[in-house]
Amino acid sequence: MSLHRMKKFVAALAGAALLFGAAACGTSDESDANAEKKAAFDVASVKKDDRIAAMVPKSIADSGKLTVGMELSYAPAEFLANDGKTPQGYDVDLAKALGKVFGLDTEIVSSTFDSIVPSVGSKYDLGITAMTITQERMDAVDFVSYYKAGSSWAVKKGNPEHVNTDDLCGMKIAVQVGTTQEEEANEIKEQCKADGKKDVEVLPSKLQTDAATSVVSGKADVFYADSPVAGYAISQTGDELEELGSAEGVVKQGVAVKKGDTELAKAVQAGMQHLMDDGDYMKILKAWGVENGAIDKAEINPTDLG
């Protein structure tokens, strides 16, 4: 891929103004325009629910805002618009809608993925960032389930490196730091080593866009991400990437709440359930083309994660 096309690809995923100067590739790319038009649902139409708003802890209610930590390179869940500063995506819309139900303005705080769990309850009120619910994470924070997604592998079109997900020994795997996919890739690496097979090289990136572009550039053989994120990245590359196999291990994702903050967790559960029941939740997901991951019940620390 040429340098010019590489820049256009990254811009489509995360916003040209964020990653490159305006002179690098312009803003007229059709896929960029389509990404900007995705959010057809007007979050401003969501109404405050007085009963649920009364459940919000007084310290948050009195502040007038709901602060939410997000890692803004995870399109279409959360990423920056072409201006390089405006958060957009289905998680962004859901966070804003939740704030509306509470009668609060939502403030999105840009964070690295691996810093969000430790910062919930101190740097911001909630973490909403396509985060898979795991037992390890539930030891650190409480969760309110709101979505489900699997994990998908993506390779260069035509799979020129002959990647086989049944045997990834000898492959270079690109992942985002702190994700369940990084954990799984490292488990594969250790298993290949234990079996005396070719080494796996795990290439972790702070940004999901970097993981995707490393495959396009040939730095990695395959990248591994949440299925809606991988699907969106593939759609933005035209004929550069393709999904390998189908989504694996579909599990629930959750809103992270400070461990033990039952009052806020119950408010988030009630607010998210309200959005599900009145249809706004599904309208948001459909606006971003990710309705396949919809669930119909928001639960605090669900026992069934599948």
Automatic annotation (TrEMBL):
PROSITE patterns: PROKAR_LIPOPROTEIN. Gene3D superfamilies: Periplasmic binding protein-like II (3.40.190.10). InterPro entries: Solute-binding_3/MltF_N. The keyword rRNA processing does not apply. Residues 65-292 form the Solute-binding protein family 3/N-terminal domain. CDD domains: PBP2_MidA_like. Pfam families: SBP_bac_3. The keyword Signal applies. Residues 1-24 form the signal peptide. This is ABC transporter substrate-binding protein.
